[in-house]
UniProtKB/TrEMBL annotation, chain A:
Family: Belongs to the UQCRB/QCR7 family.
Organism: Kwoniella shivajii
Topology of the protein relative to the lipid bilayer: Peripheral membrane protein
Keywords attached to this entry: Electron transport, Membrane, Mitochondrion, Mitochondrion inner membrane, Respiratory chain, Transport
Pfam (any one): UCR_14kD
Record field: transmembrane: none
Domain of life: Eukaryota
SUPFAM superfamilies per UniProt: 14 kDa protein of cytochrome bc1 complex (Ubiquinol-cytochrome c reductase)
Protein name per Swiss-Prot or TrEMBL: Complex III subunit 7
Automatic annotation (TrEMBL), chain B:
Family statement drawn from the similarity comment of this UniProt entry: Belongs to the peptidase M16 family. UQCRC2/QCR2 subfamily.
UniProt domain Peptidase M16 N-terminal: residue ranges: 38-177
Higher taxonomy: Eukaryota, Fungi, Dikarya, Basidiomycota, Agaricomycotina
Places the protein is found: Mitochondrion inner membrane
Pfam families, per database record: Peptidase_M16, Peptidase_M16_C
Database matches in PANTHER family: CYTOCHROME B-C1 COMPLEX SUBUNIT 2, MITOCHONDRIAL, METALLOPROTEASE
Protein name (Swiss-Prot/TrEMBL): Cytochrome b-c1 complex subunit 2, mitochondrial
Domain of life per record: Eukaryota
Membrane topology type: Peripheral membrane protein
Keyword Nucleotide-binding among UniProt keywords: no
Gene3D superfamilies xref list: Metalloenzyme, LuxS/M16 peptidase-like (3.30.830.10)
Statement: the UniProt record of this protein carries the keyword Transport: yes
Predominant subcellular localization, coarse grouping: mitochondrion
Annotated Peptidase M16 C-terminal domain residues: 184-363
Length: 153, 432
């Protein structure tokens, strides 16, 4: 398990968050879920027709890359929600109640993609700074089925 | 490291090429046919190639084979794209993919002793490629696009591609390159790959490794691979020859190396005979010596126009062959004159050939045949089709070739309608 500090601050463009730590403790998560839902409803973004992932800061290379990976339909819907939300904000109005985003509609469509991009970057960093000992160890552990041929050349 | 003394005298490269092509026998490992060639020389490297019957002639959508070729060695269930590349670098290996009209070849070249790793890389490409949509967009399509554009800017590549299309229309006539006019979706690639990567469709060729060792390793590495013969295997229609003419203006933005080019070819829907192989060298076009055009009729003709070339080619396929000449000259006017001369040479091909010329051509053909297996591409190009057609790899026998048999084969070939492709200033270039 990664350290607490890494869990909180290691989320890249998603910003510092206790969520990974809370998720790792099922009991705590169960308790925290009600506060989480309370916050999401109170924040009011659902009343303007946004999804939670629309609020993620998008001016980072990682999020830009993740947005590129959305399907055309997802991209279109995202822009539509933003324009709709912007208009509601200008009018200082919420959408009619039947158009509010329901909790089950509030899917995290972007977060998994951002996490994928972050994981790729982390893997690249790991390979960039790795030591070759790793492979040598692996090679020593492996049974070589061509051992007869060894020393032939 | 290697002193010359270690190489025993009797083993010239040529001899080992012959002995190895005669002695090697294919075997089967868990449904995959396998063949290994042991190098007798001091080579410290081995190579493994997976030959897949998924060339452009099996395409379900235009360009899908080209896209699949570039999808090789991307993310699999075992390793990400980056990991595959970095591990290969650490082992000091080279991974490559090549596409022909009939086969897709996935190759790994590496130092001896690393067989296990590279075999598992190849096996995981076949069994568990992930085909991520974003990889198609970010990594695969840009390369596909640049390869297609590059092929378009090379008149000889473009001319041969178009010549195949004229000669065979569908199947073998499919272009090797994806085209912007026919978008390839991820689902196309996935379904094509599913048919292509089934065990019955795959053969493994190794060099620097014995057949026994290879088949043992293959049956353990490919054991978990997709073997379901139920998955729809790829189909192609049998080839028939059509022929025809097309004229393409040379793009004025093409680089200076793109010179006006013509291809004059004749095809047949039977496999290439030894007579045709010799005929190629009889017409020639390539000099055996530096600074001299040589004595073959084509190179004599090309010598009259500075900067031009005329080379005979023979492209053998499993059920067809395309024989012809690629002619190029610095300007379209020069090309027009040269092409007419080449056409008359082709028409009289094989007639009145002196015994001495035939002997020379047979010797050249023999050498070319033997030396082709010295490179990995040549070896694979010869062994792959042989494995799929059931087995043994023989070196071609030229004993039955004589002046009369060549002229008979040539007149048979020239009966068919010619395939003519002209690329350049089409208002100047001659018609067929």
């Amino acid at each position: 398990m990664p350290s607490l500090a890494k869990m909180i601050f290691g989320n890249g463009p998603l910003g510092p968050s206790f969520a990974p730590w809370i998720k790792s403790k099922p009991g705590l998560q169960k308790y925290w879920a009600r506060w989480s839902n309370f916050y999401k409803n109170a924040a009011g973004y659902r009343k303007k027709g946004y999804l939670y992932d629309d609020l993620i800061l998008e001016e980072t290379p990682q999020v830009q890359k993740a947005i590129q990976r959305l399907s055309p339909q997802q991209k279109y819907d995202r822009v539509f929600r933003m324009r709709q939300g912007l208009i509601q904000s200008m009018h200082h109005k919420d959408l009619p109640k039947d158009q509010w985003v329901k909790p089950e509609q509030d899917v995290r469509y972007l977060t998994p993609l951002i996490e994928g991009v972050i994981a790729e970057e982390a893997e690249r960093a790991e390979w960039d700074y790795m030591t070759v000992e790793k492979i040598q160890q692996k090679r020593a552990e492996k049974r070589n089925i061509f051992s007869k041929k060894e020393g032939h050349h | 490291m290697y002193s010359l003394a270690k190489v025993s005298r009797g083993q010239s490269a040529l001899k080992s090429a012959f002995s190895r092509s005669v002695s090697s026998k294919a075997s089967s490992a868990g449904g995959v046919s396998v063949i290994g060639f042991e190098n007798k020389g001091p080579a410290a490297t081995s190579s493994l190639t997976v030959a897949i019957k998924a060339g452009s002639r099996y395409e379900t959508t235009p360009g899908v084979a080209h896209v699949l070729k570039n999808f090789a060695f991307k993310a699999t269930a075992n390793a990400s794209t980056l990991r595959t590349a970095r591990e290969t670098e650490l082992y000091g290996g080279v991974l490559s993919a090549a596409l022909t009209r009939e086969h897709l070849f996935l190759s790994a070249e590496f130092l001896r002793g690393d067989e296990e790793h590279f075999l598992s890389v190849l096996a995981s490409v076949l069994s568990s490629s992930q085909f991520h949509g974003y990889e198609l967009k970010e990594l695969v399509l840009p390369v596909v696009q640049s390869e297609s554009v590059f092929a378009q800017t090379s008149p000889s590549t473009l001319a041969l591609d178009v010549a195949h299309n004229l000669a065979f229309r569908k199947g073998l006539g499919n272009s090797l390159y994806a085209s912007p006019h026919y978008p390839v979706t991820l689902d196309d690639v996935k379904s094509f790959a599913q048919g292509a990567f089934s065990k019955s469709n795959v053969a493994v060729i190794g060099s620097g490794i014995s057949t026994e060792a290879l088949s043992q390793a293959v049956s353990s590495a490919f054991g978990s691979g997709t073997s379901s013969p139920t998955s729809g295997s790829l189909k192609t229609q049998s080839t028939s020859y059509f022929g025809g003419e097309t004229r393409i203006p040379l793009d004025i933005h093409a680089p200076a190396t793109s010179v006006p080019t013509m291809v004059i070819a004749y095809g047949s829907s039977s496999t290439a005979s030894p007579d045709l192989k010799v005929l190629k060298h009889l017409l020639g076009g390539e000099s055996s010596l530096k600074w001299t055009p040589g004595v073959s009729p084509l190179s004599q003709a090309a010598d009259k126009v500075p900067g031009s070339s005329a080379k005979a080619f023979l492209l053998p396929y499993s059920d067809a062959a395309l024989f012809g000449v690629v002619v190029s000259a610095p300007t379209s006017v020069q090309l027009a004159g040269l092409a007419k001369e080449v056409a008359s040479i082709i028409k009289s091909a094989g007639k009145e050939a002196k015994d001495e010329e035939v002997k020379r051509a047979v010797a050249k053909a023999k050498f070319a045949d033997a030396t082709s297996t010295e490179t990995l591409e040549g070896l694979v190009a010869q062994a792959g089709p042989a494995l799929f057609s059931g087995g043994e790899i023989k070196s071609e026998s030229f004993s039955g070739v004589s002046a009369s048999s060549i002229s008979k084969a040539a007149s048979e070939l020239l009966k068919s309608k010619p395939t003519v492709v002209a690329i350049g200033n089409v208002s100047v270039l001659p018609y067929a």
